[in-house]
Amino acid sequence: MENKPLIVLNFKTYAESMGEKAVRMAKFCEEVSVDSEVDIIACPQIPDIYRVANAVKIPVFAQHIDAVGAGSYTGHITADCVRSAGAKGTLINHSERRLLLSEIDAALQSAKKAGLTTIVCTNNIAVTSAAAALSPDFVAIEPPELIGSGNPVSKANPEIVSGSVSAVKKINPRVKVLCGAGISTGDDVAAAIELGTEGVLLASGVIKAKDPKAALFDLVKKI
Ligand code: G3P
């Protein structure tokens, strides 16, 4: 997934992308990825990682990991466990699963030790700067008010995207920037790339679409 625009599809807890439907959705992602040669990453719910990772060759990421390692912890999600289930990476600090800065740092350390690629989600330029200082592989800027809105961040708030790209360049230029919230079309993706990002993180535009496969094909049409 080097130097090519990236599409990251978060399955969230949508019923349309859970259990066997998670496998179906991931297979759509795989088909579109193979056809378009665009990297597409599937992020199913944690208990679905194993079945999805066994069914497709595209990368599967966790939606979250906790800042704990092996030991006397109960009900947590460890980097090692999602890795052994087949995940190649993880989201950290999604707006719908926020962590403290110290926990983001600890989760990043565990993810790195486990060999997971990391995407830290951020809600504004200041948080993007803080996240970049922790050296994840990616930050993903997602203004919470646009999540699930159908109003694409790349058009509704281009300043927060370009501002995040400039902030990351100053602080830690090795970190790549994605953007998300309200993205649903190829035009939205093209606008995101135009603003200097490496790709997008999205959910409802595909998962809730009448025809998710067609929505995925539309997303990659301008890449
Ligand atoms: O993780 C992606 C997300 O929060 C954006 O959601 O539904 O606006 O694409 P959505």
Instruction: Name the helix and strand elements from N-terminus to C-terminus, one letter apiece.
Output: EHEHEHEHEHEHHEHEHH
Helix proportion: 40-55%
In the residues, how many domains can be counted? 1
Poorly predicted runs are none
How is this fold's topology laid out?
Elements: E1 6-10, H1 20-36, E2 39-43, H2 49-55, E3 61-62, H3 79-85, E4 89-92, H4 101-114, E5 117-122, H5 125-133, E6 138-141, H6 153-156, H7 158-171, E7 176-180, H8 186-194, E8 199-202, H9 204-207, H10 212-220
Parallel strand pairs: 1-2, 1-8, 3-4, 4-5, 5-6, 6-7, 7-8
Helix pairs in contact: 1-10, 5-7, 8-10
The protein binds SN-glycerol-3-phosphate.
Question: Can you put this structure into words, describing what you see?
Answer:
This protein is of the alpha/beta class and 223 residues long. It has one domain: TIM Barrel (Alpha-Beta Barrel), CATH 3.20.20.70. The protein has helices at 20-36, 49-55, 79-85, 101-114, 125-133, 153-156, 158-171, 186-194, 204-207, 212-220; strands spanning 6-10, 39-43, 61-62, 89-92, 117-122, 138-141, 176-180, 199-202. An eight-stranded parallel sheet has the order 2-1-8-7-6-5-4-3. Helix 4 (101-114) links the parallel strand 4 (89-92) and strand 5 (117-122). It binds SN-glycerol-3-phosphate (G3P). Residues 10, 94, 142, 147-148, 180-183, 201-205 line the site of SN-glycerol-3-phosphate.
